[in-house]
């Protein structure tokens, strides 16, 4: 029997076509889709904007109207995030950051080893391919998309395997950004406790900073410092992966922006003349982070969601629940 499009299908087609129909805006030729994208991004950067709202609006734009700039969004997201993280360094105190990183070291080492080990066995149990399983475990253990991007070439992952791992981690990041502050407030967690928990249990730096900034400034400082210290583990994990997967001579991409964050933190801590401009730089960094989360949300599509599949997503959820619950219990019982 031949499929006949329903009136709803025709309406959706007309709506999609109207969004991409160009019109003149002054000297520019633009589409309604592009205008909606730009206006929504500007809304995120107003005083009413926030990291969770930016992510939600980005998701809405992608899933309802479509992203008119997919290539540009992907291109600028990582750079904007890196510069934003460097800018946040001007709001940190070196002594406080050192203390936070030392406090989080034991949690970091224990959680990375346990998550990678559990990820191996869960992946085998679910029948997830070895490369995809390792990518998801690495992203959960260290720092989400950055870890997957670093480890992917080492295991010679295909584009589909990379997309599955990145899609899994991204969806869980989006959930964590909204869920963690609610849980923290419900459990009456201190700023110190929440910052440490967010840094350990949320995948990507963008969502860690977004959740922590929503919780408070002290939580933001602790979460950012511990998360960036954690991100340095990309290097030994990638090198260990090269040995495990027998891919010698692989070049590991170093997260150089972390050095920029440290330099900014040291400058504002020990060069007094910079302190008056530090709040401006931190404010710009927070706007950059908000824009980053909007672009990340706008990068999600139904194609990415369909590519994930049930088994890899279940693996990602199980690992995320494990690291979230165990680290939360330990932090609540050992950290003031």
TrEMBL record:
Principal subcellular localisation of the protein: membrane
Domain of life the protein comes from: Bacteria
One term under GO cellular component: plasma membrane
InterPro entries attached to this UniProt entry: UPF0324_pro
Subcellular localization(s) per the UniProt record: Cell membrane
Record's keyword terms, sorted: Cell membrane, Membrane, Transmembrane, Transmembrane helix
Membrane topology field: Multi-pass membrane protein
Name of the protein this chain belongs to: Sulfate exporter family transporter
Family: Belongs to the UPF0324 family.
């Amino acid at each position: 029997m031949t499929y006949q499009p329903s009136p709803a299908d025709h309406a959706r087609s007309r709506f999609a076509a109207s969004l991409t129909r160009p019109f003149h805006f002054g000297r520019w030729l633009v589409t309604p889709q592009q205008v909606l994208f730009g206006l929504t991004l500007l809304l995120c950067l107003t005083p009413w904007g926030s990291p969770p709202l930016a992510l939600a609006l980005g998701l809405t734009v992608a899933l309802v109207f479509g992203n008119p700039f997919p290539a540009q969004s992907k291109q600028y997201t990582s750079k904007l995030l890196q510069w934003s993280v460097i800018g946040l360094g001007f709001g940190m105190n070196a002594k406080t950051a050192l203390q936070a990183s030392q406090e989080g070291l034991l949690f970091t080492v224990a959680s990375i080893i346990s998550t990678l080990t559990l990820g191996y066995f869960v992946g085998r149990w679910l029948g997830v391919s070895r490369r995809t399983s390792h990518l998801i475990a690495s992203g959960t253990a260290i720092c989400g998309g950055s870890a997957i991007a670093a480890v992917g070439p080492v295991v010679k992952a295909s584009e589909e395997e990379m997309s599955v791992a990145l899609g899994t981690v991204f969806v869980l990041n989006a959930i964590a950004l909204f869920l963690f502050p609610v849980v923290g407030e419900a459990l009456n967690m201190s700023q110190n406790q929440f910052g440490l928990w967010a840094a350990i249990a949320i995948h990507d730096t963008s969502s860690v900073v977004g959740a922590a900034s929503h919780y408070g400034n002290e939580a933001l400082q602790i979460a950012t410092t511990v998360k960036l210290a954690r991100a340095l583990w990309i290097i030994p994990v990638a090198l260990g992966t090269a040995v495990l997967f027998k891919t010698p001579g692989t070049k590991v991409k170093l997260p150089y922006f972390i050095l920029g964050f440290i330099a900014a933190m040291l400058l504002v801590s020990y060069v007094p003349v910079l302190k008056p401009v530090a709040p401006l730089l931190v404010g710009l960094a927070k706007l950059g982070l908000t824009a980053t989360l909007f672009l990340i949300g706008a990068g999600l599509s139904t194609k990415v969601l369909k590519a994930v599949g049930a088994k890899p997503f279940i693996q990602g959820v199980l690992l995320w629940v494990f690291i979230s619950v165990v680290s939360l219990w330990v932090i609540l019982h050992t950290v003031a």
